[in-house]
## 1
Amino acid sequence: MIIKPKVLRDISSKKVNNSFKKLSKRVDLSRREIYRFPFAPTLKLLFVPILMVYLVFGSALAPVGSNQLLYAADESREELEKQLEDLETQIAEYESTIDQYKKEGKNIESDINSLNAKINKLNLQIKSINLSLRKLDNDLEENKEQIFSTEGEIIENKDILGRSLQNIYMNEDLSVIEILLRRPKLSDFFGDVMDLFEIQESMHATLEKVMELREYLFDEKEMLALKKLDIEELYDYQASQKRAISETKNQKASLLEVTKSKEKEVQELKEQTEKTAAEIRSRIFKSLGGGELPFGEAVKIAQLAEKSTGIRAAFTLAVLTQESGIRGVIGANLGQCAYNEPWNLNPEGKVMRSSQAVAFERITSELDLDPEKMPVSCPIPRDGLYGGAMGPAQFMPTTWEMYEDRIAAITGNNPPSPWRNADAFVATSLYLKDAYNSSACVNYADTYENISPRQKLQERCAAAKYYAGGNWYTFRWKYGDPVAERADRLQKDINILDQ
């Protein structure tokens, strides 16, 4: 018995590939009559009225929850940014106050050092005066002894002179004959007479010398006493100066202590404000979707890259913030263009250069990604005719190919993805390492190291090379310096959050 099929289809049709699709034309051999409702025409007729009703009433009936959340998020972001702006203004004021206190402190310290020098000088002078006074005391004592000795000689000479005068007086009434008779020899007589004259003359001369010495010693004693009085007065004057200077020094030391105390208080307020600002920045970094990344998480990834490359995490984050950030949020701007989107402002008429497009298609193919759906940077006329930078690191496809193996060796992701944060951070860090250690950046630092720290000079150069390659010198101030400054600010935030 042969069973005939109910539906036949012409398989000789050229559209063999569509043989399993819904059949548009059929031959029904069944005996049962089939009734079909015309759904398609009916839906087509109803589509226009439904669309009009939706357009008129749809906005009133549409759910508002998601829009409210987005609005709330935007409002929160704006409020946080306003708070952050106020805090940064306070930080700047605190820094100015601290600088003023430091300046005052340095001036006070300089005054105190000057006073210390004066006190030390006065101490030496007083020490010298004390030595002079002791020497004068010794001189006075010696002078006193000499006067005492001289007075003894005077007394002795007076006694001798008195006996001589007494002898003369006793012999004054004797006649010459009596004197001669007392001496058996005439020569003895004349000898006595001569001895008497010599004694008189010697005593007279000695007495004059002793009197002169006595007068001299008394004059010297008076002179030494006056000198001692002058030195004692100088000692008292310099001692009073020392006391006055010491009092001034103590006052300035107290003022310095107060100044440093105030500086410390302001420094503590500044640190607390910086901590609050860092926490707010961390909240601003909070993920709102897409490629954005919380600040704390970004720091951890950048620090992992730092361990492998030696480039500090703050510098990597500063570059990533500059490249793919919106108001400091890493990954907030991963590009707004498609790689093959028409762009009439360059010769090839596309966003991405054809050589880059080939590399881009290979990268997305290896990652099983649809190249049409992966956003890239749009061309920026002032910086170049073509776009096509990928992911948070904003690498061009051919540049990414150069670093793929090194990225994979660090992250373990093979193939690495420009849109995966860990891979992008490591890529940025690797590129910055090569630029930082390049001969151009090293020579730049060698040339200007007497003006700025070497690290800042090399980071400025490396950031400019990240942006402009061989044309880095043109962009060292426009791009490189703001990134280096941002790295220092981010480093402060990281240090504060790590406490």
## 2
Amino acid sequence: MPDPISAIRREQGRSDSGRLILALLAFIVWSAISRTLPAQEKSLLWRVSRDDKSVYLLGSIHYLRKENYPLNPAILTTLDASTRLILEIDLNSTPADSAQRLSLEKAIYRDGTTLAQNVSAETYQLAERRATELGLDMRILNPMKPWFAALTMVAIKLQRMGLDPKFGVDRHLAERAKSTGKPTGGLETLEFQLGIFDRLSKREQELMLRETVGELERLDRDIDAVVSAWLKGEGDQLASLLNAGMQEYPELYENILVARNRRWVGGIEKLIQQESGAMVVVGAAHLVGKDSVVEMLKAKGYSVEQR
């Protein structure tokens, strides 16, 4: 989930460095694409229709490199022909200042405790080891809740690999829509997305941190497989790469993926009926696998065609 909204910076008295650099991420899809999609291949773009009404669904990549552009022309053609662009969060109406303020309210301990006091010694040591490998001082992570510490380390790892949220597909399409005067909207609010993580039980937050520090080591190895699957539009392979690990943690899987997919399906159905021709862009992990938005719409009798 996301998806990074912005990198934020603010003074933090509990850090000896005097400055806390945080990466705000709604949900991260650990992937990147290279250049454009060959014409003969499918992409993670679907047309969902019933009768003569339809919308398009696109699986987004939240972190990319500058050299990954331009995007597949089919994506841009679909956007240009659409009536409205709908994202997880409306990036064109989410002020950076309010995003920073809200993230700090949710992500930082306000009761005087620290990360070290809210997770086991083993989990903390694993996180500390991974942070050291990333060149990150644990004093920066200590004020953070486990879920935010996890997302911060993922953001730093991706940026160490040359990937940047400002080149994410969703942000690129939002800026293109803004420049052409195309209306935009969101399926959720930033507060809702942050709340998903913040409402996780203490146990699940720690599991999320443990899962993350374990997955970081695999990220360098798995990235090529993810790239290939995304380029070829291989949904089953992407589901295995992106979602399989999370299924080992049912509460995380349900709250971060499945429950949101169910809510989104209702909103997409309304779009089909009320604003045929809209384009909906969400993290690719939400559109692949047995619990995906695509499968839920098929189960409701919609015609779903991958482009």
## 3
Amino acid sequence: MIFGYSTNAFVNYSLTEAIDRIAALGFKGIEIMGDRPHLYPPDFGEKELGAIKSLLDKHRMKITNINSFTLFAIGDTYLPSWIEPDKHRRDIRVTHTLESLHVAHALDCKNISIPPGGPLNGMAPPDAMALFYDGLAKVIPTAEALGIRLLVEPEPELMIETTAQFLDFIEGIDSPAVGINFDIGHFYCAGEDPALAFDTLYQWVGHVHLEDIASDRRHHHLVPGRGVIDFAAVFERMVRLGYAGDISLELYTYKDAPDAAGKDSLEYLLPIFEHSGLMVSS
């Protein structure tokens, strides 16, 4: 199991600078932001991807995940979405996901994370879900052919926020290529116990995001140890269930001090990993 750090905390730096800085902190893994200013697929040809792979090999780092959630290159955090009324905008999301799958394959990354669609903006949930299924049907065959998993990430205020909503969604999917990017803080924001949520959703978990959240459950990522998340309970549940996937620290809220945030996170989390019995390389 590899512990990585997401480059979305390093948006003030280029992708190569972010890789160097994350390696210097001692992380053995890296989650790459699949968007500008980092790895937006249309900006990277075979040569550019080869250079990134060589740099990662130099640092002996593994890509834990390609985060294809945002679309700042042409939109924002959520839009274009899987569930917008405009078909052209939905097709942009489909195309971005297909391109991200090919990038993941080129870089030997086994999964990408994607949003569940939203905000709903008044759309009826059944109608929104039908659009999401339609979009996924256009990308699942490519994911299956390439051996890359599509990990849907429940997020506060989007179409899928909770354990129950994910379970309802996954019932309509007939492909092992679709799973969940389990963000510990997001489930806490949704009013749940992350350890219990992990237990329920374990069979679909392909990757985990870590961050802390304050007691008011506001969706604002904090350095682990500065909120109230019971990480030990989640890690112990992972050990009990035999989770063997990777974990990434996601602290995009610390773009002005990503190195210090990463260092403090390591100092706080490594003893908890060890005490919980979670065998993590960082």
## 4
Amino acid sequence: MSFKFPLASSSWDKKEYAAMQRVIDSDIFTMGVNVKEFEKQFAKYVGSNYCIMVNSGSSANLLMIASLFYCSNSSLRLERGDEVIVPPVSWSTTYYPLLQYGLKLRFVDIDVETLNYDLDQLEEAVTERTRLIVAVNLLGNPNDYVEINKIIGQKDIILVEDNCEAMGAEFSERKTGTFGLMGSFSTFFSHHISTMEGGLIVTNDEELYHILLSLRAHGWTRDLPKNNYVCGEKSDDPFKESFRFVLPGYNVRPLELSGSIGLEQLKKLPCIIDSRRENARLFVKALDGHPDILIQSEIGKSSWFGFSLVVRPGSPFTREKLLGLLSQRGFETRPIVAGNFINNEVIKYFELKDLPELKNAGYVGSNGLFIGNHHFSMDEAIESLASI
């Protein structure tokens, strides 16, 4: 089905196709020099020491959690049964690695306006059992990291960021994805930049970087520097290191094609973010204070992945009526990420006990939706939206 105002659109032009052709001409398609250069440039863009590219944002989340089980630093190392706090509105693969590594999930409700953590409830939820907090910067909106770090204080709690929807967002003049020990990003088609499929992890911790390098490719030593935190010192004999496995890893390597596209997309990213913010300025101007619709309240400088619309409590409007009107005008719509995730059938595998009410997540899940934002002018779409 074709929509006048789709959720996502391509930001590729002849430069991306030329980059792909150069890879095709080289006849080297697996992870190589283009991926390495993209990692270097992306780390520089966000202001991080290390970056590793993988085949998806979901894989980035998986490796981010897995790496915490193999580090030597006991203050950072997780164990099965440790408690992790998560918001109930996010994508499925925010949660799956936590389940798969035996962590105990504790859901903390969101704020109905920011769509990120309700900070009062987050503070109440933190106990001596809490070892990890996953901050999800939903629809491009940063969390309030000043307040989150106050809540963590001197407690033995690790903070990581699922920043897959918030590339380019900023809080206190710093890029999101860099406030936690690690941060994940997605470069899937519908995200701020696209590399076909792809994801990234950034960190300033060298040991975790080495662990991620090994986990990304079979758990072997081949991609590690000679002196590293995983196996110590590698042999100078490449034959001995060819099939030397030291960690229970995966194969989530990206393609060289994706790395080459990423280099071109990264050059465009500042302009892409600027255009999305200009669209957001017009969107907020048109709908802020609307009697029937709540829009997302910005924290810091959002990169505006999309525009959320939540029917206000007590409004005679319904989401079904809103969906119908938007469809008539040609808007493609989706639920706000996965809505309240605990309402999905898959939750039966999580063995959760004593679930809180999650009132706000439930409300947003039942009464909210989002429409797309883009790297080009959306004047017509916003005018049409405001006239509904």
